Amino acid sequence: MSRAVAHAAVVVVFASLIALAFWRLNYTWNWAGIWEYRQKFLQGWFTTVGLSCASLIASSAIGVAAALCLQSRLPIVEAVGRVYVELIRGTPLLVQLLIGFYVIASAIGLENRFVVGVLVLSLFSGAYMAEIFRGGLEAIPQTQRDAAKSIGLTPIQTLRFVIVPQAVRLVLPPVAGQLVSLIKDSSLLSVIAISEFTLNAQEVNSFTYSTLESYLPLAAGYLILTLPLSALSRFLEKRFRYET
Amino acid sequence: MKLEITDLTQRFGSVCVLDRLQLVTGTIGALVLVGPSGGGKSTLLRILAGLDLPVSGRVAFDGRPLPRDEKSLRAYRCTVGTVFQSYNLFPHLSALDNLLLPLVHVHGLSMAEARARVLEPLERFQLLEHAHKRPAQLSGGQKQRIAIVRAMAVMPERLFLDEPTSSLDPEMTAEVLEMIGELKSLGTQFVLVTHEMGFAKRVADEVAFVGNGGVLAHGTADEMLNRCPEARVRDFFARTLV
User: Which residue, of A148, A236, B23, B58, has the greatest Cβ tally within 10 A?
Assistant: First the structure.
């Protein structure tokens, strides 16, 4: 059986089970009421796409910078990286968003919710990225650095030609997982009243009292974003594959 | 080459690996370092190759002392070649790309010049058909010979080899040693750390016995293997030359 057929079969089985559960519920669907709010869903979804794209890029950049801090031989730089990572990973995103928006952003006069949301989300995800990148860099054996040194590469060239190409292969799967989490975590930005996908679904629910009809499109909307990301990660893993 | 080492000391933390090591060779083509494991051979070779800075002491090749700052040391490393015990090659690059990397990005050759440069040694050492393979697809002996070609392709003043055959089976050891022998006959100067005493005897102009952080004895291969006054050295050869 080919892989595609196997995937399709599993999807059909799962979908049938869930459909069966819904059927047992004897639920009266109100899709007509939801359809009237399709523009709202669409607008929220595009906001989430924008938030996610901006945060994907920013959190990767923050992750790389923090990973380099964690690797630094200067104690103060290493400490900055370590405190950042532990503080962010050890506290809930919800609290970070509230403090980030209502305390820090208002203290420095930053009023744009979208910008604050992207910043907090990127700082949050960047801490996880930093540990993934650090793990990738440290997994490259010292002998590779020795070999690079012996042929006269500079430290920057060593990173570019030897360390990073090998580390990328190692960090791709966990980075893809982290980015998928990031997209779903963006739903928490509703607490600082950013009109993203989840907030719009919540509002539609409160207008129509049709909870399932409001949230099922939400699940589908996130899958449309996360599935291609997983596919891209698998494609890149294949491209970077080599035996060791 | 003529190597002069004075009071060379190297410490890792509180462990003193080289303790005021002294060595002055004649003007020779090949120096072989032998001795027990953990005696400081590899540490000495890493300093000679410009990979590590010693705590103190002076090292000079042909009267020119090794630099003490990282920038000049990197320039020095570009003028010599180093081959390690194993894992020399970059696993994500083909054998050919491993050879081209230093030529193009360190020595500033064009891609075409670099390719032309490595063609002859690849042919000479029967490696041409393996040029497009990744290291994982090569045998241990082939990997090590590619590593030696990479070190030689930049036309170094001399080569440093740190136990280049110790992770290879006897057949592959033979093919790598044969290659080193051929380089020697082509006039390549090198410093070699090895446990292959028979080979050491064949290629060495001088042999230095490194143990307990110093040079316990040194001389021609014949002097060292047959009539060394130092008892510990005689014992060592008696046990390893069976």
Answer: A148
